[in-house]
Amino acid sequence: MTLNTILRFSRAASPDETFTGQWQNRATRLDAYKPYLDQRWQEGCTNAWKPWEEIKEQGYPRG
Fold it and tell me: DSSP assignment, residue 44?
């Protein structure tokens, strides 16, 4: 990762702020889970593994 990428991630107040550029508004398979993931982020859960396991239990189709 470049220094600018690390700085952008460290300054992000929400997960959406980590995304920039042409792919930002593109539909993804995670769209249905974004409100839940945002909630978990606000609760302080910034480790991606735990929310990923939780959305798998909720029916996320990717393994």
Answer: T
pLDDT above 70 for 29:
yes
Tens of pLDDT, residues 43-62: 999 888 999 999 999 999 87
Contacts of 20 by beta carbon, 8 Å cutoff, 6+ apart: 8
Q: Environment class of residue 60 by beta-carbon count within 10 Å: exposed (0-12), middle (13-18) or buried (19+)?
A: middle
For 26, 34, 45, 54, the CA distances from 17, given in Å and listed in that order, are 15, 13, 16, 22
Q: What average pLDDT does range 24-44 have in this prediction? A: 87
HSE-up of residue 48 (Cα within 13 Å, Cβ side): 2
The contacts of residue 49 (CB under 8 Å, 6+ apart) are none
